[in-house]
Automatic annotation (TrEMBL):
It holds the Pfam family AP_endonuc_2. Transmembrane segments: none annotated. GO terms for molecular function: isomerase activity. Keywords: Isomerase. This is Sugar phosphate isomerase/epimerase family protein. InterPro entries: IolE/XylAMocC-like, Xyl_isomerase-like_sf, Xyl_isomerase-like_TIM-brl. SUPFAM superfamilies: Xylose isomerase-like (SSF51658). Residues 23-289 form the Xylose isomerase-like TIM barrel domain. The lineage of its organism: Bacteria, Bacillati, Bacillota, Bacilli, Bacillales. It comes from Paenibacillus ehimensis. It comes from the Bacteria.
């Protein structure tokens, strides 16, 4: 099994100013980057047409692509009827920015999908995600839901109900093993019709947890990325580890991606640790070893 997929890096992981993070990603050997685009200088509202053109030219000049933008707006995802109109509008603008920068993928968390399809929250999420899916399809793009809060089977059922491939999947194998205990390789086959972007991340599930305690839920608590990072660091429910050191079977995961004909990015995500550069360097080397097989 020799991988031919391009390698991406979430450049924000370096905790450097934007262009320094981009330079570092290129220096370590990445082909592309995933960038958060919800606030600060990457907020679509803060990037006019000239600034977008300038950033795209800079990326081209250093030989980097954007694998995806991260448009995760946190909170309760798209569970909250009152908050959804503003979130839907901003999500559309993030996809517009993505297209201007050369990618058609925006990754996001949509909130925990209720098990009960009769739950009013389920219907609200269907409505919001349906709107986003239709918009994405109209402009040739995708909103890609990150795996983790629910099993692959349940997520596929929800996606099937939307009737549009504009709402797709950002497949994160570590989230699966750490939270639901799902098998990533089987999950790839289950979600094969929707996967447009992937993460390379590893981890261990230390004990079973209510997904609401991690990802939040309306009437419970909102999702908080800093709180998730704290849980990971404390080993409260799970532990994130460098690729190859956790419970993700990467031989099976990468083989599954090849089996379904996935040709997109393998993007490295490192959410914890005080040596992000060294961790990402090792992760790139880990993927490179698969690319050299044959």
């Amino acid at each position: 099994m020799a991988l031919t997929n391009k390698i991406g890096v979430i450049s924000d992981s370096f905790k450097l100013p934007l262009r320094e993070g981009l330079q570092k990603s290129k220096e370590l050997g990445a082909d592309g980057v995933q960038i958060w685009a919800t606030q600060g200088e990457m907020d679509p509202a803060n990037l006019n047409a000239a600034a977008r053109k300038d950033l795209k030219a800079y990326l081209d000049s250093i030989g980097l692509e954007i694998s995806a933008l991260c448009g995760d707006l946190g909170g309760h995802g798209f569970q909250d009827k009152e908050a959804n109109p503003a979130k839907i509008e901003k999500s559309k603008r993030i996809l517009d920015l993505a297209l201007d920068l050369g990618t058609n993928i925006v990754t996001t968390h949509i909130g925990l999908v209720p098990d009960d399809t009769g739950d009013p929250i389920y219907a609200e999420m269907q409505d919001a995600c349906g709107q986003l899916a239709r918009y994405a399809s109209s402009v040739g793009g995708y909103f890609a839901i990150e795996t983790g809060p629910e099993t692959a089977t349940h997520l596929k059922s929800f996606l099937d109900s939307l009737g549009s491939k504009g709402m797709a999947v950002n497949f994160d194998p570590a989230n699966m093993v750490m939270v639901t205990g799902d098998d990533p390789a089987k999950g790839v086959h289950t979600l094969k019709d929707y996967i447009v972007h992937t993460h390379v991340k590893d981890g261990l599930r230390l004990r079973e947890a209510d997904p609401r305690a991690i990802y939040g839920s309306l009437g419970y608590k909102p999702m908080d990325h800093e709180e998730i990072a704290r849980m990971v660091s404390a080993g409260e429910f799970f532990r994130e580890l460098p690729p190859g050191e956790g419970a993700v079977d990467f031989d099976a995961y990468f083989q599954a991606l090849q089996d379904i004909g996935y040709t997109g990015y393998l993007t490295i995500e490192r959410e914890v640790g005080d040596q992000p550069e060294e961790d990402i360097r090792k992760a790139i080397q880990f993927i490179e070893a698969y690319r050299k097989r044959g």
